Known about the structure:
48% of the residues lie in helices and 10% in strands. It has 2 helices and 2 strands. Strands 1-2 form a two-stranded antiparallel sheet. The protein starts with 7 loop residues before the first helix and ends with a strand.
Amino acid sequence: MQTTVQSLEELARQSRINYSVVADSPYMEYFVNMAGAEDELYKKWKVCKSLHDEAIKNCTCAPYSQKCHHITCDRGRCSLF
Length: 81
């Protein structure tokens, strides 16, 4: 015997029924935009992380425990603190 899904919460909790948004709908556009934004932020994070790791390796002005621990990125520029 098969039962039907009674609510959106129930649908979200299960994994047997595949579902998605309607093609070319505002909801699809939202998720496509969010995926693009996540990709762009991840690419920028990788660059900043690489710069941070390199700065820690090359930092000789303080003991390791006092080296740069915080990284801030703004408009593609990274600052290490």
